[in-house]
Design brief:
The complex is a heterodimer of chains A (about 325) and B (about 90). Chain A has about 325 residues and is mostly helical. Chain A contains 13 helices and no strands. In chain A, helix 5 runs antiparallel to helix 6. The longest helix of chain A has 30 residues. Chain B starts with a strand and ends with a strand. By secondary structure, chain B is α+β, with helices and mostly antiparallel strands. Chain B has a four-stranded antiparallel sheet with strand order 2-3-1-5, with helices on one face. Classes of the chains: A mainly alpha (about 325), B alpha+beta (about 90). Chains A and B meet through loops of A and loops of B.
Chain lengths: ~325, ~90
């Protein structure tokens, strides 16, 4: 008896949802990111305005002065949706946890010179209040933004800000033997030390910025554009001359995150500037205002750690922000 | 005429961007879609480039990840850090 094995090809009736196919231009297999992002936010049939703010619609394009024909022109180049986002962050956090464990086990914090430990307490720990402010700002932009593509990157980064505030807090606990004294002192520094008042004023002022796109530029481009290179690159270099190796390990999460943020942010700026010269002009104005403020606000703390080098470093940080803006098609 | 090389991949979310990259980098390749797998034939040689796949999926991609999706292949393998190539060495 001969046996014939035959395959039956069953063609699926459709490859993806109609609204995704419309954007793809044909009915073909879509990625999870596309299916989990495009046109997910409802656009029609809202009968009532929000009771908590009747001046706006629940999803409202007019909450920013930026105009886009289609708010889904921007797609996250990292293609993160909830599933891939949690996996990506889990991987980063796993590495960070193992650094914490290693440093704790081998009592590595003690290898840092005492003056540098004190410096770390002064410049890094108060930054957790800045990160909390950044969480507020990113939540706010996620809330007001139009379209799932943008609001989801906002909420993802808002959650990451809490993570970074916690990492900084844990550094404090490593430095003060879990007593929490260093964190109390950091709060006092944040509220009272002259080194921090400019930063605190800037963060608090940003809480009341109405336009969410301006807020996003202020926080994620200008303030973060100063914080990430300054704290996790330039300060680290000084630390390395003072036995700061454990800090280099603990900074890894923030360094990776800073690179990750640049990827989606620079793409968003590029797409938005390419839409119209009006958009580009608005953004240019916001960038120059907030870059000036951010540079000014962080100059005292930069001087405290870097000494005479601070002016050069701040100039090169400013140049980097200008260069990134220019690459995205925005002249400052 | 040169001999055919071929690679067969699973038809799933992980492999779809790889298939797309192969189509982009090998204009002569024929893609045959079967239930649950995709067989790609190409005369002479067939290449999977890390760069192209990374561009499509938007993250870093190790060429060795390819092996998680491979069902079968025909041809001699030349694998480097940044590409995976099939051709007959005679």
């Amino acid at each position: 008896m001969s046996l014939e094995i035959k395959t039956n090809v069953i063609k699926p009736r459709r490859q993806t949802y109609d609204h995704i196919a419309k954007r793809l231009g044909a009915d073909k297999a879509a990625t999870r990111y596309q299916e989990g992002t495009w046109d997910l936010q409802p656009t029609e049939n809202f009968h009532y305005r929000p009771t908590w703010d009747p001046s706006r619609a629940l999803y409202d394009k007019s909450l920013t002065a930026i105009k886009m024909e289609d708010w889904y022109t921007f797609n996250d180049p990292r293609q993160l949706y909830y599933g891939t986002y949690t996996m990506a962050r889990h991987k980063m956090m796993e590495a960070e946890e193992s650094h914490f464990k290693f440093i704790d086990k081998s009592n590595m914090m003690a290898t840092m010179s005492a003056p540098w430990q004190q410096k770390v307490k002064e410049f890094l720990l108060p930054l957790r209040h800045f990160e909390w402010g950044a969480n507020m700002n990113n939540c706010d932009f996620s809330d007001k933004a139009y379209g799932t593509a943008i609001s989801q990157v906002g909420l993802f980064s808002a959650m990451d800000r809490l993570a970074m505030a916690q990492i900084i807090s844990r550094v404090g606990l490593l430095l003060d033997d879990n007593s929490g004294e260093s964190l109390d002192q950091a709060k006092v520094d944040w509220m009272e030390s002259d080194l921090w008042q400019g930063v605190r004023r800037m963060v608090e002022d940003s809480f009341v910025v109405k336009d969410w796109f301006e807020l996003l530029i202020a926080q994620n481009l200008c303030m973060d554009g100063v914080v990430f290179p300054l704290f996790y690159q330039y300060f680290e270099e000084v630390g390395n001359q003072n036995g700061g190796a454990p800090m280099s390990m603990l900074n890894e999460f923030m360094q990776d995150w800073g690179k990750d943020e640049k990827r989606w942010l620079d793409h968003l700026l590029k797409v938005t500037a390419a839409e119209s010269p009006e958009n580009a002009a608005l953004m240019s104005q916001w960038i120059s205002t907030w870059t000036d403020r951010a540079i000014e606000a962080f100059t005292p703390i930069a001087g405290h750690v870097l000494g005479d080098e601070a002016a050069n470093v701040m100039a090169s940080i400013r140049e980097e922000i200008t260069k990134r803006s220019k690459k995205s098609g925005i002249e400052i | 005429m040169s001999r055919i090389v071929s690679i067969t991949l699973q038809n799933n979310d992980d492999a779809r961007p790889i298939i797309e990259a192969i189509e982009a980098d090998n204009p002569d390749a024929t893609v045959n879609i079967y239930p649950a797998m995709v067989k790609i034939d190409c005369a002479g040689r067939l290449i999977v480039k890390q760069e192209t796949v990374e561009e499509i999926i938007g993250r870093e991609w190790d060429v060795q990840e390819l092996h998680l999706s491979i069902v079968s292949l025909a041809g001699n393998v030349d694998e480097e850090d940044n590409y995976f190539e099939l051709k007959w060495n005679f």
